[in-house]
Amino acid sequence: MTKLTFSKARKIFISIFAFAMTGGSGAGFFTLLFKDADSLITWAAIFPLFIALTAISFLGIRQTFFAYCSFDDEAGMEFYYGIGKPLKIPLSALSDFYPLPDGISISCTVNKNGKKHKKMLRVPADFQQIQLLYEWLNEHAANTFMEEVKVSAQEFSEEHSVLSDEEKNQLLKKNWAVAKLFDWTGIAIAIFFFVSIFLGGQIKKIAFCICASYPLLLLMAARFSNGNIRFISRRSDVCPGLFWSFFYCSIALSASAFLYLDSVYSIQKMMAVSAVSVIFAASLYVALAADAEKRNLKSLAGILILTAFMYGGGTALTANVIFDSSEPALYEATVLGKRISGGRHKRKYLDISPWIDGKTEHKEVAAAGILYAESEAGDKVSVKLYGGKLGIPYFRVSKKIQDKE
Q1: Read out DSSP for 251-316?
Q2: What's CA 268's distance to the chain center, in Å?
Q3: Taking the alpha carbons of 133, 135, 137, 142 in that order, is the dihedral positive or negative?
Q4: 3-class SS at 123?
Q5: pTM, 2 dp
Q6: Are the beta carbons of 247 and 281 closer than 8 angstroms?
Q7: Residues near 145 by Cβ (< 8 Å), separated by ≥ 6?
Q8: I need a labelling partner for 327 at 20 to 30 A (CA). Which of 60, 207, 222, 239 fits?
């Protein structure tokens, strides 16, 4: 019987990492405990974190040292994940398998309470000599991945039946080269726009136009490529996809919009304008996804909606601010207090009094480092309210000059 386990190098690494993680959190907890035994943070946050990391470390070490997968032509498979009981799978219960970047997904049928249930298990790619399991499964189960590749190759061949085999291979190579170029260009554009956020000025406007337009170019490329390049592509498709290029730009656009969220005055108008962009982007996504991946659209719905929201909302909110040329309305407000939000990434806020005709409720506003440091309760601040290029009002707060003198 062939038995696969984790390597010694992985066992040593996981052990060191687990002890370091547990030891670090434990040292932090006991240090705070002896300094201030009544601290709410020590018992409400640090102690639960210490317990959680200890449990994760224990389970990680147990899995690394005890998990295994054994198999032979008589007994079938036995899989143990390091927790619970080993799962024994006779040859007759094996259904199919699918190789993944992080291991091999295996489908089988197990008996539970007298009834047969389909079960999926994943053998980690970190097991030593996992290629032996792949070869054994090829003899005893259906290779779903290869079957999907064959179907995709057959569809491509039928769509280009007028071409010779050599011409089909050349076309495939060309398609993948073009898709790779789109991918790297998308990464470069996303990085360029993200950097321009901190540079500002005309560079940011130019970078934004490129970043917002590039995804539309990708949609057009997928739409008019006659199926040679798809928008959504599975790993088993012989035709490349362009989704990740769109995703990179959407991430950059949403990161830019996030910087303006705290300064939006009318959330209702922001949602209304953003919704138009989101619906537009989602419609294009669904149309292209349905054309490229009719069988798997439901499984893609979540990522499609998320990316459409990031692209549509990010584009609308960023364009509303960086292209706005409206004259601001000036208001005066009094600082009532200030605070720093908790969490890993701390943010600073000022609590200010009503500032539109004295009727609006006071609200917290995000404050830059200098503004936060120089402001104290009772100080006056200047509030500028802008109309926004797309009609989404936003404001900026600064310390009044006379208060500095």
Answers
A1: HHHHHHHHTTGGGBS-HHHHHHHHHHHHHHHHHHHHHHHHHH-GGGHHHHHHHHHHHHHHHHHHHH
A2: 26
A3: positive
A4: strand
A5: 0.64
A6: no
A7: 97, 98, 99, 235, 236
A8: 207
